[in-house]
Amino acid sequence: MPKGKPWTRVQEKKLQGLVKAKVSSETIARELEISLGSVRQKMRRLGLEVVGHGDLQNPTTTHDLPKDLFTVEQVPLFLARAVKSLEQPGLEKGEVLRLRSLVQACRVYQDKFAEYVNYRRIESDLVELRKEVAALRARAENATG
Do 99 and 128 reside in the same domain of the chain? Predict the structure, then answer.
């Protein structure tokens, strides 16, 4: 599958700011002049989450995460430091391998982090659906009883 134009740092920072401001993904896409699919995919990769769709009723948000996880902001910093270190001439082979492993670990971490956030969203949605079903059952029992 061909990839589109890469995101700039300015676009990523603006995306993060809009998400923090609880702006919908549709509005973000219009604001950044990027397709909705691209915005949603970038949000998943950055560990951001869309709770729903629509400008007013369904804001964008992030989940509270366990304290021992690296934040979305920390991983790119680790990655940048590793890449910068790789630029140094005369590195020993072992150090190059260690830094390359760190780069790969950052990529994997970002993917797994996005999966985790998505799992948390699905889990949260399931809990809410169970509450709604229980409320509907109670109303039905009260109406027939």
Answer: yes
- Spell out the residues 6+ positions from residue 104 whose beta carbon is closer than 8 angstroms to its own: none
Query: Both 105 and 133 in a single domain?
Result: yes
Asked if residue 96 and residue 56 are part of one domain, the reply reads no
Residues 20 and 45 both lie in one domain: yes
Question: What are φ and ψ of residue 37, in 5° steps?
Answer: -60, -40
The residue range of the domain holding 82 is: 66-145
Phi, psi of 61 (to 5 degrees): -155, 170
**pLDDT tens profile 110-139:** 888 888 878 888 888 888 888 888 889 988
Indicate the SS3 state at residue 122.
helix
Tokens encoding 100: 């390359």
Cα–Cα distance, 41 to 32 (Å, whole number): 14
In tens, the pLDDT along 8-63 reads 999 998 998 888 887 888 888 888 888 888 888 898 888 887 554 433 333 334 45
